[in-house]
Amino acid sequence: MIIMLTLATLAVLALATLVGTAWLERRYAPDGEIIAVDGGALHVVDLGPRDAAGPAIVLIHGASANLRSMRPLGDQLAATHRVILIDRPGHGFSPRVEDGTSSPTAQAAMIDQALGKLGVDRAIIVVHSLAGALGALMPLNHPKRVAGLVMLAPVTHPWVGGVGSYNKIIATPLIGPLLAHTITLPIGLALVTPGARTAFAPQPMPENFVEASATPLLLRPQEFRANAIDLVGLKEAVRAQVSRYPQIAVPTVALHGDADTIASLEIHSRPFVAAVPHAKLIVLPNVGHMVQYAAPGLVVREIDAMIAAARPKAAVLQ
């Protein structure tokens, strides 16, 4: 009797998840284009004038998010620059074709290929949070594509502790898919807003953030699993690349709040900037993890300064 009741409950939850997933994908439909790359495809949104002077700006989101979390910054920059927002593999509307695309190395390669197909020869790479790991690899593995690197509250170094037991369970081959296809969406709907508030603290979360950023897309089974797999593999990934940071040769700036409880300033940005030649660190007092929302004007000014420095100097008449 207990077994039958359990199976019936799981069946109801699975059906609710299936219906909920379809509803979420109708509510937050993709608004960009799909670019085929080796290992899968990437959903990108291309904003601003295509003929803008200087490098394009590429915005890449972190964990538990999609490209819409970077959209307010992108819209501000797009007034004068070409801006490309990208859903990382498995997030938003970029499919996760294989788990091998979860590593920062693989994701950096896919983004580089997509930029080539979009005709972007040189770009300022702007990354947030978990994407700091792949952002640091862009100038190392794809130096011809990168004109500068802007790191917003990035993850760059191994840390003490893990990424939460639930992420580890969801990332496992058998129990993970079962949970992702049954209880994650119904329970997660109640936790999305409190979780987002934690990311913004001590700043208040913008009133419409969850809706505007399409954060509930995370609760779809495949995306929730992809997010967990990314997080579970992150520590070892950054551990393997730390020794390469002194080889980064492009202009680099990191902006990090000293009240960030998700990615520590002292563990990540401070040692990263110390390792990268001529990199600059900007510490934001009493600012949490969402730097691009807490200080968008400062972020834009730093990007503008980097683009201005990257433009060819006018010839001097003799």
From TrEMBL:
Superkingdom of origin organism: Bacteria
GO MF annotations in UniProt: catalytic activity
Gene3D superfamilies (UniProt xref): alpha/beta hydrolase
Signal peptide residue numbers: none
Domain AB hydrolase-1: 55-158
Pfam family, one: Abhydrolase_1
Name used for this protein in its record: Pimeloyl-ACP methyl ester carboxylesterase
Species the sequence originates in: Rhodopseudomonas rhenobacensis
